[in-house]
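Hello again, I could really use a second opinion on something today. For a while now I've been wondering how a particular protein folds. Please have a think about how the structure follows from the sequence. Here's the protein in full, and shout if anything looks odd to you:

***
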Amino acid sequence: MTLRCGTLIIAIMARMLSINLKLAGITFASLLLCISAMGSYGECMKTLTKLIAKEKSVMTSDALESYTNIKTVKAFSAEATEMKKFEVGN
């Protein structure tokens, strides 16, 4: 598959050069600009993705901590009621 695509690209480039040298040169120059822009865009997106993942991990750990502490808070708020039940039973 890669060999066939590579061969096709080379054949298209050769055909473009044989038709009109100036237009082929403009096309190749703009193609190089697009490729370089894609590289810098990819690096920027990689940095932003790492930043977003770090922020999501902080949010997830905060949410998990809050969720696990709910039972503890409920237990402390019901402490007086439970002590009264225990005293009545004894």
In short: Helices lie at 2-19, 21-77, 79-89.
